[in-house]
């Protein structure tokens, strides 16, 4: 084995994603366990033996040793892997166009990037998503995988970097500081688009229930006390409306995410890049993604500022909080079924207790609540990380990326499971709702224009103490006729469908 720059046997183990490396006796996955043939790779710190079968190299290996934190590799975020490939693809095309990268190399890199976008080689993106270095390890993992796969495309062996180099060729005209923020923003755009699609389906499901329940009168509530009547359809339509507002807010964030700093390289001055590169790579990124992009007008600012991530994270939090409130309402409305409100029935998804036979819990709204709690916490993390940036770079973008990409994935899954496993199957307990409306003193509010507030308040008190119906009391006291009461207390008037 080649020189490992003083690393102990324990330090030479690789602690990364448990799905991609073998665990040794000490519980830490071992770089060479069952590796078979190896190849020697070197960097400025020395040399390491790398399993010949893998596409990553020495920089990735060192990152696996250094960051045994999350046990979650960047491959767990396919959108990020695809976004990295698209950025590298656009860079190769721009460099080929400008004549700073050999056409054969550029074409090989381009082809490998297409393979990654199609789903190949994702298991080679093994570094932990939480890492020091402002994303350098992620960028190097990407460079090495693409370089070694491109070498094979050209008919050479992995590690033959004299033929095609991870940094000199794949990373040409780039640095982590413009590749990584561009890639994570692009990945987030992919995630937002997917979330909006699921969110709209959920909104449509609530709206459909609004139509289905349009005829079902119920008692409205404020501060958990009986209020005036409404329809169950109005309640569910209200859920749909508030969700649609969040779809608009999420859509509004996307154009801001498409401002990029490619070509800024290290700190925004464009060092090592052709002056024409920024515009060329932006144009090629648009072509390979189908998404319009704009080069930031101030590349120094764009390289250091993380404000857009706070904007997206805050918008996600708003959406999560509102969705969680709706789930709270679903749990409350379905509570019981005997001793609670029991106004709606949620689909029975699983047995609810290991000790109480027949108990069924609102497990789908509950899991969505927990997703919302996580999104709220992730927003706090993003806020702290954005604030902690210093001078020309924010070193904490990896935790920002992890927090937002996880929130996007979890919210998308939450919207899907809430729709499919809950909302689509909700039914109304119409008999219970009708009985509640008939005995509710809240309907007296509709009579105040005809009998006055003081008389209405007295009737409400009598109804509460005697359990008599409001309609009977009004007619019995000669305040209104049976026909007048029936007209004023009709479901259409009580729900506001027609003027009182």
Automatic annotation (TrEMBL):
Gene Ontology biological process: aspartate metabolic process; tricarboxylic acid cycle
Region listing for Disordered, in residue ranges: 1-43
SUPFAM superfamilies: L-aspartase-like
Name used for this protein in its record: Aspartate ammonia-lyase
Gene Ontology CC terms, in alphabetical order: cytosol
An example molecular function term from Gene Ontology annotations: aspartate ammonia-lyase activity
Record key words, sorted: Lyase
Residue stretches making up the Fumarate lyase N-terminal domain: 47-377
Biased composition range(s): Polar residues: 1-13
Pfam families xrefs: FumaraseC_C (PF10415), Lyase_1 (PF00206)
Organism: Protaetiibacter larvae
Fumarase C C-terminal domain residues: 444-494
């Amino acid at each position: 084995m080649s020189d490992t720059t003083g690393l102990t046997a324990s330090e030479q183990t690789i602690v990364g994603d448990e799905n991609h490396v073998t665990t040794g006796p000490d519980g830490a996955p071992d770089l060479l366990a069952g590796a078979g043939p190896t190849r020697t790779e070197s960097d400025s710190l020395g040399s390491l033996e790398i399993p010949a079968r893998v596409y990553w190299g020495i920089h990735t290996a060192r990152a696996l040793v250094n960051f045994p934190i999350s046990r979650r590799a960047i491959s767990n975020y396919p959108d990020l892997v695809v976004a990295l490939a698209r950025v590298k693809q656009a860079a190769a095309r721009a460099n080929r166009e400008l004549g700073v990268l050999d056409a054969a190399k550029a074409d090989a890199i381009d082809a490998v990037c297409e393979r990654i976008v199609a789903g190949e080689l994702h298991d080679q993106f093994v570094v932990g998503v939480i890492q020091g270095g402002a994303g350098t390890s992620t960028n190097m993992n990407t460079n090495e995988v693409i370089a070694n796969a491109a070498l094979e495309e050209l008919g050479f062996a992995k590690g033959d970097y004299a033929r095609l180099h991870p940094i000199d060729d794949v990373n040409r005209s780039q640095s982590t500081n413009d590749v990584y923020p561009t890639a994570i923003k692009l990945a987030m755009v992919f995630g937002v688009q997917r979330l909006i699609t699921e969110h709209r389906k959920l909104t449509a499901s609530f709206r459909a229930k609004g139509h289905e329940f349009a005829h079902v009168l119920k008692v409205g509530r404020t501060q958990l006390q009986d209020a005036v009547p409404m329809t169950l359809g109005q309640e569910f339509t209200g859920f749909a409306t508030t969700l649609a507002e969040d779809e608009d807010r999420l859509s509004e964030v996307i154009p801001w995410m498409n401002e990029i700093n490619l070509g800024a390289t290290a700190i925004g001055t464009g060092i090592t890049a052709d002056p024409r590169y920024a515009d060329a790579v932006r144009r090629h990124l648009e072509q390979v993604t189908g998404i319009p992009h704009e080069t930031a007008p101030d590349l120094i600012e764009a390289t250091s500022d993380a404000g857009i991530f706070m904007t997206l994270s805050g918008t996600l939090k708003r959406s999560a909080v509102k969705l969680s409130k709706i789930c709270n309402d679903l749990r409350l409305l379905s509570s019981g079924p005997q001793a609670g409100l029991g106004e709606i029935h949620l689909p029975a998804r699983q047995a609810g207790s290991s000790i109480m036979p027949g108990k069924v819990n609102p497990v789908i709204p509950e899991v969505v609540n927990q997703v919302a709690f996580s999104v709220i916490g992730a927003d706090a993390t993003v806020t702290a990380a954005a604030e902690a940036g210093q001078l020309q770079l924010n070193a904490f973008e990896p935790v920002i990326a992890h927090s937002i990409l996880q929130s996007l994935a979890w919210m998308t899954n939450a919207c899907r499971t809430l729709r499919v496993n809950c909302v689509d199957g909700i039914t109304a307990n119409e008999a219970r709702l009708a009985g509640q409306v008939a005995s509710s003193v809240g309907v007296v509010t509709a009579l105040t224009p005809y009998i006055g507030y003081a008389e209405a308040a007295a009737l409400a008190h009598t109804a509460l103490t005697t359990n008599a119906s409001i309609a009977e009391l009004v007619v019995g006291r000669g305040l209104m006729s049976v026909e007048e009461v029936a007209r004023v207390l009709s479901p259409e008037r009580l729900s506001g469908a027609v003027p009182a």
